[in-house]
Amino acid sequence: MRRLLLAACASFAWAGFAAAACPSDEAIEALSRSLLANTPSPALTGMTSLADGQCGQEKLVGLMVRHWGRAVGYKVGLTNPAGQQVFAIPHPVTGTIYEATVRLRSGGEVPARFGAVSLVESDLMVRVRDEAINQARTHLDVLRNLDLVIPFMELPDLGFTARPDGPNLLASNVGARLGVLGEGIAVQVTEEFAARLGSMTVILSSDQRELARAPGTALLGHPLNVIPWLAQDLASRGERLRVGQLISLGGFSPLFPAEPGRTYTVTYEGLLAAPVTVSVRTN
């Protein structure tokens, strides 16, 4: 796992932090207005590296916290190889999640057009218990520094009129917008609990129709592998994980358009003795 994480970070540094051309304040302000109006925006132009997109993301988050609430943690995108292939980025990327991202609880309702490009994705969230997580590398060390595993359906908004390239994906804050939380599960610091996280099956369905299923290993080989990657990515920018922060670990499923009048459900089979679910109704 260590070799994988170091290679990913090296790739990010090589591809992302060469000669940045940060989007202008005016361009980011226009993107923020489009997001707030639920109107798709043309892609930002002039960016040539992931560092450009990261710079744009910092500006965008600074604007959006005024509307969607303070930052409460991070989302890690492209932790699934299928997503990396779609966006042509061979490693994960990091975004910031807002209070609005974690406000809705399972069984609630949301407008089908909650965003400019409204999407649904099966995910999983964890909560940080101790800042020693920044040095954790093994699965048990990661578990020692978490207190909750939370069923989570992300409702992202990519925001653009066409699929974004890497810099635009980062500039859009990796699409972070809304989400739906299930009931938190107390972390067990055992090899058996770690094994269940890796061997579980995650199913996304619309009403009674299955849309996608994936094993826990779909996220960087194991969901807990995401957290050391994130800690190292943040450290490269002088940041660190803090107590109480939430981490969205990434998409088990492809992104699906949110359709009105549907009940979307994510089911985790094998995580606990009985299946665990989180659901939302669109209107």
Structural account:
- The protein has 283 residues and is of the alpha+beta class.
- It has one domain (2-282): Fumarylacetoacetase-like, C-terminal domain (Fumarylacetoacetate hydrolase, domain 2, Alpha-Beta Complex).
- The protein is built from 8 helices and 14 strands.
- A hairpin with a 6-residue loop joins strand 13 and strand 14.
- Helix 1 packs across helix 8 (226-235) and helix 2 (25-36) packs across helix 3 (50-68).
Topology:
Layout: H1 2-16, H2 25-36, H3 50-68, E1 71-77, H4 81-87, E2 93-98, E3 104-105, E4 108-110, E5 119-128, H5 139-144, E6 146-155, H6 166-171, E7 178-181, E8 185-186, H7 191-199, E9 201-206, E10 209-215, H8 226-235, E11 246-248, E12 256-257, E13 263-269, E14 276-282
Parallel strand pairs: 1-11, 3-7, 4-14
Antiparallel strand pairs: 1-2, 5-6, 5-11, 5-12, 6-7, 6-8, 9-10, 9-13, 13-14
Helix pairs in contact: 1-8, 2-3
In short:
By secondary structure, this protein is of the alpha+beta class. Helices cover 30% and strands 27% of the residues.
